[in-house]
Specification:
Largest sheet: 5 strands, parallel
Number of strands: 14
Helix content: 40-55%
Radius of gyration: 23 Å
Strand order of the largest sheet: 2-1-3-4-5
CATH topology of the domain at 3-226: Rossmann fold
CATH architecture of the domain at 3-226: 3-Layer(aba) Sandwich
Shape: globular
Mean pLDDT: 93
């Protein structure tokens, strides 16, 4: 294939690589504002981030709201952020700009200076408003095959986006805030997944710019890593000789006997859906993205059973493992993509989508127009303030509904020695 040497060469040239581990930046009760352009307004990676923070629970009851705006640039957002985002009083803000800032053309000195100034402006305005945690996200990449249906054009614009990535990283360092390398997460996954599925498999979307679920999961991965999420969802330790069971926080043993363990968990593993070969599927990108290994470890350790092979049944599905594998620990979330949490996860996610769907008109139409409405009818300022308060209360209620949809899940594990 032509793609691999070209993509790997560019990847190395642009200095992409894994980020260092970080401490968890979130605190219980945080409000995370997810800010960006039309890619954010797709309400995919923002939903995945909210899925993770509500269900995987790295910190308790963290609220998320999305502030995507199609066609937006860093400079454009800096000019409207006080009215459209800071009125929500977020404690954490993640930004993702650059796709439109680059103008879909080669980088220039003026363009770079404008992007750097706007990113710095956003960070400083957040600091002045009391935002505790700021994550400057880089833009992602465009797809090597679908962007303008031209490999040469894709290489050109990925060079621009990579330079913006470096600017965003430098702004984060200079301002002492966090950085999410969205570009590296997407580009690396694009290289690996095209090797697996062929060049027609896109990570940057059918238009090369707006990712489907696969690329959006890469984006969520980058932001969750930047926030310092450890990936420790839970740990179940079973002593097979006497069937003693120990579990980590967020899980409890309801009963244990006869080779069967009944548990109840308030922390979910992240769940994946869709065709394992489709770009519009979170499952298809797993071979190219270390999401399970780094963010989604729900570990079963079974020791003391002697040699041989065992059948592990989790819910309705079973797999066989060597005793040595079980004693080292298996990641249930990775081994059982269909598991007892799949349906509860999907149900809660549907409520999260209701909330985030509301936030697009809330920000782009209702709240954004308030300053002009107040100018037009100043005598109705008090009425407009009451309406604004009510709109924000409705968003809070929709979040509360999403949080309430995350209920403890009862599930069963069975470990059997095979003949």
């Amino acid at each position: 294939m032509i793609f691999r040497p070209l993509a790997v060469g560019l990847l190395l040239a642009l200095g992409c690589g894994p980020a260092a581990a970080a401490d968890l930046a979130l605190k219980p009760g945080d409000f995370v504002a997810v800010v960006g352009d039309s890619i954010t307004e797709q309400k995919q990676y923002s939903v995945f981030v909210e899925d993770y923070l509500l269900m995987c629970r790295p910190a308790e009851r963290v609220r998320v709201a999305q502030f995507g705006w199609s066609g937006e640039t860093a400079q454009g957002f800096a000019g409207r952020m006080e009215n459209d985002m800071l009125r929500f009083h977020p404690s954490v803000v993640t930004t993702c700009f650059g796709m439109n800032d680059g103008g879909y053309a080669p980088m220039t000195a003026d363009k770079a200076a404008r992007y750097q100034a706007a990113q710095t402006d956003i960070v400083r305005k957040c600091k002045a408003a009391g935002v505790r945690v700021i994550v400057v996200g880089s833009p992602g990449c465009v797809d090597a095959n679908t962007f303008r249906k031209s490999r040469i054009e894709a290489v050109m614009y990925n060079e621009t986006l990579a330079q913006e990535r470096d600017i965003a990283r430098d702004v984060a360092r200079q301002e002492g805030v966090l950085f999410a390398d969205v570009y590296a997460a997407m580009f690396d996954a694009m290289v690996k997944s095209k090797e697996e599925f062929g060049e027609a498999y896109h990570v940057g979307g059918g238009d090369g710019v707006h990712p489907d679920a696969n690329g959006q999961l890469c984006m969520a991965f980058a932001f969750l890593k930047a926030l310092g999420c450890s990936g420790e969802i839970g740990r179940i330790e079973v002593e097979l000789s006497d069937r003693k069971v120990r579990v980590s926080q967020g899980h409890r043993v309801l009963s244990s006997g006869g080779g069967t363990i009944e548990l109840e968990s308030s922390r979910y593993p992240f769940c994946f859906y869709g065709d394992g070969k489709s770009p519009n599927s979170t499952r298809s990108i797993l071979a190219a993205l270390p999401f399970n290994a780094e963010l989604n470890r729900f570990t079963l350790v079974a020791t003391g059973g002697g040699a041989g092979r065992y059948k592990v049944t989790w819910g309705d599905n079973s797999k066989e493992f060597a005793a040595s594998h079980l004693s080292a620990g298996i990641n249930l979330a990775a081994e059982f993509l269909d598991n007892p949490f799949s349906k509860p996860f999907q149900k809660a996610e549907s409520q999260i989508r209701v909330q985030q769907q509301y936030e697009t008109p809330l920000v782009k139409a209702f709240l954004h127009d308030f300053p002009e409405l107040q100018k037009a009818v100043p005598e109705e300022t008090d009425a407009l303030k009451r309406i604004g308060t009510r709109l924000l209360e409705k968003d809070q209620q929709l979040f509360d509904d999403a949080a309430a949809a995350v209920v403890p899940v009862k599930h069963t594990l069975k470990i059997e020695l095979l003949p």
